[in-house]
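Re-run with default settings, no changes from the original entry. Doing this only to confirm the output is reproducible before filing.
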Amino acid sequence: MAISFEVLHKDIAARIGRLRVGERTVRTPALLPVVNPHLPLITPREMQEMGVEAIITNAYIFSKSADYRERALQEGLHSVLDFDGVIMTDSGSFQLMVYGEVEISNLQTIGFQKDIGSDIIVPLDIPTTPDADQERAEQELAVTLGRIREGHTFLGPDANLAGPVQGGVYPALREYAARTVQDIGFSFCPVGAVVPLMETYRYSDLVRVVMAAKRGLSPSTCVHLFGAGHPAMLALGAAMGCDIFDSAAYALFAKDGRYLTTHGSLKVEELSELPCPCSVCRSHTAEELKRSPERERLLALHNLYVTLAEIARIRQAITDGTLWELLDIRCRTHPRLLDGYREFLRHAVDLERVDGVSKRRFFYQSAESCGRTEVLRYQNMIGRFSVGERVLVTMTGKVLEGYDSVLLYKPPFGPYPVGLSETFPIGQSEVPEWDADMMQAGCRGIRRLADANPESRLSVLAPRRWVELVRAELADIEVLDADTV
């Protein structure tokens, strides 16, 4: 049973894809709800009816279960769980991270997963925790890579084995691990041991870890972000190029009486309204939900509905080329998530190489919009403009005599010839009243023009309110006050 991945649409580093596992197919980005056979708040069959195409369960729990071990070996996972889609199994690495040890070897868990009919098998990788020093991270990574090679040899090159990427919080180790796993020959690679980062809101570290792993992986590799499933961070995960997410959050939060939304989680006891169009929220009032004897199950259903809806919303944004706009909104739901967004923008050079050249629109939403790939790509192109000896960049549209070339100006991009006024991104950008951040970004575009044309003499015609800022940004370029010339 081979695993293959086909990319259909792209936006930023996100992809809409088709993951094929044997005869089964999953649309990506996709959420794999975690299924515990002993605590089925929502059955896999119900999940399938909700649109879930793949689930993940724990092979270690099955191997130690008096109720399910023999049934799984005799009937197979799909029959036991009554699920027709893709079933991925974790090896026991989660228990290894939580408890420090498991009573199973790497080949034992791989063999057991194969015997119960798992569609995607995971070796017993070591999840290096964020507090581990580099020496320990290197040692644990060496063990993980050894186990991956062992599993690859045991099952054969065409097996349905995942290649986990470990390495702790050290980007160089993550990139090395990714390149090594890629060289072994994997097309499905989970980025592991990131749950502690998300639990402690270390989204900047999460971005550094994932982006490092992505640098080492082929663009044709399906990337799974282990344990990521809160709807507020899924857009960030997808934008980084993660295709598969899994989470037990829908059930864990329900057990704790928490109601998931795309902007965080709320205690159900504090709700006076249910601000969601799912079937649970439309058939119950807040008070009825609080008092219901099935409250935990109803909350789990709502939480899963919200998460699946966010996955669908992300897929649509990728298709429309508007993921940046969705990402900007989602990453303002928590200060640490905004930190992660800003760290993500620091990788714009890498992102620009994979992002689409033309999109439906550029919608300026915040200072962070100045760091988007569209701005970077446009400013990289400015050096190719053909200009004369005397060049005027007019911020007002007013034209002065005596110039060989006249360029218009639109922040945050910078100068542009009139011939580009209807092309992307100039013609398809929605920009509010100019602010200092976008003006500074636009001045970087003017600087790029000046550096690319050292033989030309540039002048900038600026509105009076912006003359001081433009002069500060472009100290060696003539800046004229539009109100006095």
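The domain at 367-481 is CATH 3.40.50 (Rossmann fold). Residues 295-320 form the longest helix (26 residues).
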